[in-house]
Amino acid sequence: MLRQRVMTALVLVAAFLATLLLAPFPVQAIIFGAIASAGAWEWSNLVVIRAPLARVAFASLVPVTCVFLWIKLDLAGNGPVLAGQPLLAGSAFLWSAMLVGLKYYPGGGWLWGQPWIRGLMGWLMLSATWFAVVFCLRFNHGPTVLFLMILTIAAADIGAYFVGRRFGQHALAQAISPGKTWEGFWGGLTCVALLTALVWANLPIAYIHLNLGSLLVLGLATAGASVVGDLTVSLLKRQVGLKDSGSLLPGHGGLLDRLDSICGAAPIFALGLLLVGY
Questions:
Q1: Is the pLDDT of residue 252 over 70?
Q2: Span of 17-21, 187-191, 201-205, 267-271 with lowest mean pLDDT
Q3: How much is the pLDDT for 61?
Q4: How far is residue 136's CA from residue 131's CA, in Å, rounded to a whole number?
Q5: Cis omega before residue 115 (within 30°)?
Q6: According to the model, what pLDDT value does residue 251 have?
Q7: Are 28 and 70 in contact (CB under 8 A)?
Q8: What are φ and ψ of residue 277, in 5° steps?
Q9: Cα–Cα–Cα angle for 218, 266, 174, rounded to 5 degrees
Q10: Residue 218: is its pLDDT beyond 80?
Q11: What residues have CB less than 8 Å from 137, skipping those under 6 apart?
């Protein structure tokens, strides 16, 4: 299982890097839109939609929204970057509000028990994730910016895994994901802080105005949001009795099981870039 998991991860990393390095911006937007749409297809399991046509209809909401945002905000490159700030701020607010749901779970079961609520969450989360990713790509050195976002999420995940396995004793969210611990959480944040300091120390002279304190806040907020995204999808899977969102990725489960952290982190990271003055 570990070998299968590692092989799948290597393929995903290679495909991601190839997209960043070789594909032009519009093609990148299409590829990431297709990934978000595939995530919506799996999300239909969380809404308990079984009929194939109904699943297609639900999944199609995400690409339709992506196309609308692409045209409305002129994301092809001519529209002002700041035009997307209200959407990112709204998404960040919703993720912040989600902390309340996570804190009091299994309280609020009447809310999570509503299929339309879970469906609405999926549509908003996946559409906002695509928008945040495309937003990052529009910055100077966009592919590098997006790579650093994924690297931050990976550092938080890897740090949490190894520190949690070695020192974990206190459950982070026992009713949602029993394997996660507070020790792992802080270990993940420590890894992100070290990564952020390393990136800051090697910034080009053109970005010398970015101070370490602001970038540390951005990195830690991104890492914390990735945990919220992970726990949110875990909560919804537990609500409908699913272990994995699908079986598309050998050793990892479904695609959504890899997107959950990105869903939480991407809007926070994109908005944070604006706030730190990138």
A1: no
A2: 201-205
A3: 96
A4: 9
A5: no
A6: 57
A7: no
A8: 85, 25
A9: 85
A10: yes
A11: 25, 28, 29, 143, 145, 146
Measure the CA–CA gap between 74 and 252, rounded to whole angstroms: 36
**Distance in Å from the first CA to the final CA of the chain:** 41
Strand ranges, E, within the chain: 171-173, 177-181
Q: Taking Cα atoms as reference points, which of 138, 125, 170 lies closest to residue 262?
A: 125
Q: Which of 253, 257, 252, 230 is nearest to 3 (CA)?
A: 252
CB 63 within 8 A of CB 33: yes
| Residue 5: pLDDT over 90 | no
Beta bridge partners of 228: none
pTM of the model: 0.93
Q: How far, in Å, CA of 135 to CA of 270, rounded?
A: 7
> In angstroms, rounded to a whole number, what is the distance separating the alpha carbons of residues 8 and 11?
5
Question: Residue 53 corresponds to which tokens in the numbers above?
Answer: 């046509």
d(CA 16, CA 278): 23
C-alpha to C-alpha distance for 117 and 112, rounded to whole angstroms: 7
pLDDT band at 110 (very low <50, low <70, confident <90, very high): confident
Point out the least confidently predicted range of 52-56, 107-111, 164-168, 213-217.
107-111
Whether residue 44 is predicted with pLDDT greater than 60 in this model: the reply is yes
Close Cβ partners of 158 (under 8 Å, ≥ 6 residues apart): 188, 191
Q: Is 129 exposed, middle or buried (0-12, 13-18, 19+ CB in 10 A)?
A: buried
The answer to whether the CB of 62 falls within 8 A of the CB of 36 is: yes
